[in-house]
Here is the input.
Amino acid sequence: MVEFFVVLVEPKYQGNIGSVARAMKNFGFSNLVLVNPPKLEGEARAMAMHGIDILKGAKVVKSFGELKGKFDFLVATSAIVAGDSNAMRSPVTPEELGNSLDLKGKVGILFGREDTGLLNDEIATCDMLVTIPASNEYPTLNLSQSVAIILYELSKLSNRKRLRKFRKAKKIEKDILLEKFNALVDSVYREDFRRKVAKKTFRQLIGRAFISGLEATTLIGVFRKASGRKKK
Here is the structure.
């Protein structure tokens, strides 16, 4: 099983640390590592809200060097992407990160300082670099916002298993649905042109959309009753 750790490298503001703990709680992550953080007092606790347990359980190390050997895979984050003179900053997006991580062991997601971010030599020690696409005019996000976006993408992997699964409508159900809709159209319009347009439009809609079995059954019932009332 993969185990994710949020690693804040020399964060400057205790309020940001508390906000990160809150974001982690929102998305079901609990492992927080702080590299040379400021003293955590009332502001950090207030911003953490229900993530106070994550804040209290955070592991503190004095330097970046102490991270070596603690993780099986390291992911760096940066708002500064690659240029011709900096081959080390060739990133993936948060979505690509979530889709590409098929790992076991401890994975550290590193977030840099609020003012300078991660240094080049720190990024060079990591296995992957991820960036959040944002406006060219102001690409740097708040620390807790960056953490929330990346954890959201990672949480989607496990959330897909918990979300309610819908059975896709079978072909026979779609055929009956089209049949009942066509019967309703025939009872509403006298002109052949309008009938053809309505039938074609609905067929295209059904072809493009994801229709669940329950939705198909419900619509079949509606169209059947509507056609019956129209005949009366």
